Amino acid sequence: MLATGLNAFAERAILGGPHPAPAEIRTPSRRRQEPADSRGLILDAAARIAAESGYEPTTISKITKRSGLPVSSVYWYFKDKDELLAEVVRHSFDEWRAQQPALAPLAAGVPLTEGLAAVLSTSVRSLPAAPDFLRIGHMLTLEKRETEPAARTLFLQIRDSVEGNLADWFARELTPSVLTTRPRLPQHLAQLVIAATDGLFLAHQIHEAWNPDEFVALIVDIVHASIAATG
């Protein structure tokens, strides 16, 4: 995330500017209303099974068994497993980003590195919880299929949106002289932050010992050095 990915940040940061959020996945119109909590049970069951077993072993049969709902309830909301897992990714991302600070313009006199540290301090602390959109998204990016799953497509769209808005933030906060010398620096810094948080997410799945403050300080130091090297 955060985020390959990730990472990224709150709704204002993700949705603002010229980088649109991924298009909605539409489900067929319904003739009656299902209980509101049924959809949540289905999403939770699908997320848990996918996290435990991977994409292919996640089946509608297993989802219905885990959720305690009939097959008809799953197909009430989703046309197939592909659409369901894509919605798991979207739902997880929406929940995660709602808890992240916005990439708002910095107040006068506040250094870029201080603003970046404030955002990352919140974001990196959410990684140990292994948000479903990151876990499933990373899993699918490593797998090659003849037909790309909708969840993988959506995850990559989310990453592109996060990267674009983070790059826009860097571009707003860097000085004109830096941008003139290195016009692609905002994009490169955005990619650096996302790649670093991706790595931390994966590392935490292997070894739980980590210090978020040290990680944030390291990334901020790298960003600062990259800007300073421009002269």
Automatic annotation (TrEMBL):
Domain HTH tetR-type: 36-96
Pfam families, A to Z: TetR_N (PF00440)
Region (Disordered): 17-37
Protein name: TetR/AcrR family transcriptional regulator
Record GO terms (molecular function): DNA-binding transcription factor activity; transcription cis-regulatory region binding
SUPFAM superfamilies: Homeodomain-like (SSF46689)
Positions in coiled-coil regions: none
Domain of life: Bacteria
Keywords, ordered alphabetically: DNA-binding
Chain residues forming the annotated DNA-binding region: 59-78
